[in-house]
Amino acid sequence: MLLGGCSTGVQFAGSGSGASGDAPSTEMITEQLIEQERRLAAEQGRQDLSPLIVPNPAPYTIGRGDVLSIVVWDHPELAAGGMTAATAAADSGTAAPNAVPPGFAVDHLGRIQFPLVGLLTVDGLTEEQARAMLTKRLARYIANPSVTLRVQSYRSKRVYIDGEVKAPGLQAINDIPMTLVEALNRAGGMLPSADQSRIVVERGPARYMINLRDLVQKGVNPGSVLLAHGDVVRVHSRDESKVFVSGEVVTPRALTMHNGRLTLNEALGESGGVSPLSGDARQIYVVRKTPERTRVFQLDARVSGALAMAESFELRPKDVVYVAASPLANWNRHLSLLFPGALTSAVGVTTRP
């Protein structure tokens, strides 16, 4: 009677064991449950990315701290006294390493000091707008001025790239639109350990989770995700999204998800499958911790269509896949605990000539 009571294997409340209390109930994995979980995951993953999606980025606007290169043709005396010398030093390589780049620096009020016209507010203007305004001001003193104005050094706007990239750090925003793809490329690209399904863009108090794989599937070009000054991009590691497989499998192990995706069938396959000697194919469990409660799913691999359901059942980070032992394996183990060496002796007697 004692041995018979020990041979039932692992049981959860609601799985036929009659257990009660705080134990989580078991939910059988069916096609209906898989569809319900798919809808739930879609609702949880849905967020408004419209503040990041800009199909046609606007031209770069001059900001505070930028350095402008301004040339008024046929009037070298308007080179701000020393600008020509500084440019020559920079070209010859004799400039100090920490020297300010040659040109007209935009001050903290968004202004530059230019000969004849004095203070000129250029903050928030494009190069074309600043050139037109300067040309109009100079026309009071010079007949038909020909002006060339461009940004010499981009220092006003930056984003920060962190995580699983080759060269994390600050990236300056220049006249090339700073899209998410551009920022990742400037950081040397993502490492093999990067999880492309968990790229976070932090903009002030807002936090956006970007799944590159899902964006492509939805027809959204990742190149249309435009970053802004002060954004922080974090590329998470795949090691942070592991699934743990234990119990009666050939090789218990921790598995990393493939860019945010891993099915129950893939997890069992990468662990060698259910042990043919001790595993119970009727009792394959998935234990999932959610903020509200702990959920336990059970798959009976002997029923028709179980393989297809295991392939459709999507696992989530930190899930635990557990395969229970068969009643015979439990019986052998309990017998070995109660009568150490008895089973081995019995086998030896039966096989003795």
TrEMBL record:
UniProt entry keywords in alphabetical sequence: Cell outer membrane, Ion transport, Lipoprotein, Membrane, Palmitate, Polysaccharide transport, Porin, Signal, Sugar transport, Transmembrane, Transmembrane beta strand, Transport
Compartments it resides in: Cell outer membrane
Database matches in InterPro entries: Poly_export, Poly_export_N, SLBB_dom
Domain SLBB: 157-235, 242-323
Top-level taxon of origin: Bacteria
Gene3D superfamilies in UniProt: Outer membrane lipoprotein wza domain like (3.10.560.10), wza like domain (3.30.1950.10)
Stretches assigned to the Polysaccharide export protein N-terminal domain: 55-151
Pfam families: Poly_export (PF02563), SLBB_2 (PF22461)
Membrane topology: Multi-pass membrane protein
Family, as annotated: Belongs to the BexD/CtrA/VexA family.
Protein name: Polysaccharide biosynthesis/export family protein
Record organism: Massilia consociata
Species classification: Bacteria, Pseudomonadati, Pseudomonadota, Betaproteobacteria, Burkholderiales
